[in-house]
Amino acid sequence: MLEHEAALGITHRRLPRVNTADHAPTGRATCRACKNLIDKGAWRIGLMFYEDGRWGGSGYIHASCAAEYLETTAIQPRLRYFSPSLTEDDLREMGL
Fold first, then answer.
1. What is the pTM of this model?
2. Which DSSP category does 30 fall into?
3. Who has the most CB within 10 Å: 25, 36, 63, 82?
């Protein structure tokens, strides 16, 4: 399983940035993919970068922009790992 996820991360350069999935608590964040605001209550995917020896938050994308931004739809295992409370209904609602 880990080898498969590592290979996906190498093939899709943005995939390792995936961190969490949740509902936007405000309507202030801008999607890194489409550059539009993420509406309050909308599903969003948090992104992280590893730079200078540490992890840092790097913004969010709409769940609906994930396939285009990440260049893959194989993100469910990562979301389940970082957001263990996600249900099948949540993933369906996000369109994943």
1. 0.82
2. B
3. 63
